[in-house]
Amino acid sequence: MLLNHIIQKALKKGSTYLDYNNAANRCAYLYKYADIHTGLVTKYFKNFIEKEVKKLLESKKNLKICCLGGGPGTDIIGIFRALAIFPAFHQKVSEVTVLDICGGWRNSFKRIISSIKDGKVKDIPETFIDEKTFAARLTSVDLLGPLPQGVVDIISNADIICMVKFVSAVLGKPKSVSALQNIGQKFKLGTVILFIDNFQGNVSKSVEDISSQIGLEIILGPLHEVFVCHKRKANKKVYKCMPLSATRVSVIGFMKNLTPLNLVSVNSVPENILKVDNDDGWNTESDEDESFPLLHPIKPIKSNVGLKDQPSLHHGKDYKSIIKPNNQPHFSRAEIVQINSEHSSCICNKNELKTNKDETLQKQLELLVVCLEKLQIVLKKLFEIKNLERNTSCCCGKYMVIKGS
C-alpha cells in the first residue's frame, strides 16, 4: 500500500521533468504511458514501412535500431511489432540501443528485452530475433552535451532512429537546437527516422526546420492526428487514475538523403520556444490527455547562410523540381538512397571510420555522388534542348526557301 501511495503522488505531480531514477516515478510512467506509446510506434512505423522504406530496409544485411530518449525501451516493442508483420524482417534485427539521460530505466529495459526473447510479448514471435547475434543495451547519456565516441558510433551506424516524445522534452533547453542538429548530422545515408511528438507547441515545425538543414527528406507526413489506444486492464481504485487512452500527436517519417557540405548554423534559439511537457498534463480525473497548455507558435529557425550561398543544382524550391528526360528510368526515393548507399559503402565503409576527418570525407563523397547524378541529368536535358533547337532551325530554313521560290 505504501508503494501505491508513492505512485499516486508521482502521477499527480503533473510534470514531465520528473526524476526517473526514482522507482515510484518510473512505475507511474509505465502505468500511464507505456501502452499508448507502444501503440503509437506500432501504428506509425508500420505505415512508414509500407509507404516507401520497405525495400530499403529489406536490402540491408541486418538492422540496427537506436531510440533517442527512449526511456524503458517501450518504443522497441512498437518497432518490433511493426517489423514482425513482414516475414523479410524476421531475425534481421541485430542490435537495439536506447540512449537516455536516466540510467534508472536499465532494469525495466532488461525486463522488456527478456520478455521479447522469451516470446511473452504479444505480436512478436519468439523466433523474431536470433539470440546468437542479437545485442541490446541501454546507455545513459546527456544527448544535449558532448557525445562520447561510443555514442557517436551507435547513432552513425543505426539504420532506424526512433524519437518519441523526445524533442518536446529538450527543445526549450539551452543549446537544444544545435545539439539536435549535431545528432542529425551523424545519421548515415539511408537511415530512416520516425518522429512522434506532441501536437501542441509547434514541435513538428521546429523539427522540419532542423531536418531541412541536415539532409533529411520527409517520406511520411507530417500527420497531425488523435491516437486512441485500446483500453487495457487498469486499477483506478489503487492508482486514482486510468492509463492514458488518447493523445494528440504529430508524426513525421524522415530519410537521410543528402549530406550538405556547408552545414547551416542557427544563430540562436527563438525566444518564444517554451518547455513542452512530454505528455502534457497528468490529469488523474480523465482518461484522455486533454489538458494541453496553450503555447505560442515557435518561429521558424533562421539561418545565417542564404540560399544563394549554398552549393546547389536546384531548378526550383527543391531537387524534385529538376526536369528529367523522358527516357530516364524512374527510381523511388528509397531506391535512389539504396543505390547511393551501396556506392558510398564500397568506397568508405570497408573499414569503419572513427576519426572526424574520415567522417567528413565520407559525407563529402556521398554528396559528390548525388551531385554528379544530378549534373548528368541536367547536361542530358540541355543536350536534348540543343538538338531540338537545331532541328527547328532546319525546318524553318526549308520553309523560307519554298516560300521565296
Q: Quick recap of the structure?
A:
With 405 residues, the chain is α/β, with parallel strands linked by helices. The protein has helices at residues 2-12, 23-58, 74-84, 106-117, 149-157, 167-170, 176-185, 203-213, 236-239, 333-348, 356-404, and strands spanning 63-68, 93-100, 135-140, 160-164, 192-198, 216-228, 246-256.
CATH superfamily of the domain at 1-8 and 22-256: Vaccinia Virus protein VP39
Question: Which CATH top level class of the domain at 1-8 and 22-256 fits?
Answer: Alpha Beta
Based on secondary structure, the structural category is alpha/beta
Quaternary status of these chains? single chain
Global outline: globular
Strand order of the largest sheet: 3-2-1-4-5-7-6
Estimated radius of gyration: 25 Å
What does this structure look like?
The protein has 405 residues and is of the alpha/beta class. The chain has a domain at 1-8 and 22-256: Vaccinia Virus protein VP39 (Rossmann fold), CATH 3.40.50. The chain contains eleven helices and seven strands. A seven-stranded mixed beta sheet has the order 3-2-1-4-5-7-6, with helices on both faces. The termini are far apart.
Present the secondary structure layout:
Blueprint: H1 2-12, H2 23-58, E1 63-68, H3 74-84, E2 93-100, H4 106-117, E3 135-140, H5 149-157, E4 160-164, H6 167-170, H7 176-185, E5 192-198, H8 203-213, E6 216-228, H9 236-239, E7 246-256, H10 333-348, H11 356-404
Parallel strand pairs: 1-2, 1-4, 2-3, 4-5
Antiparallel strand pairs: 5-7, 6-7
Pfam family, one: Methyltransf_34
InterPro entries: Methyltransf_34
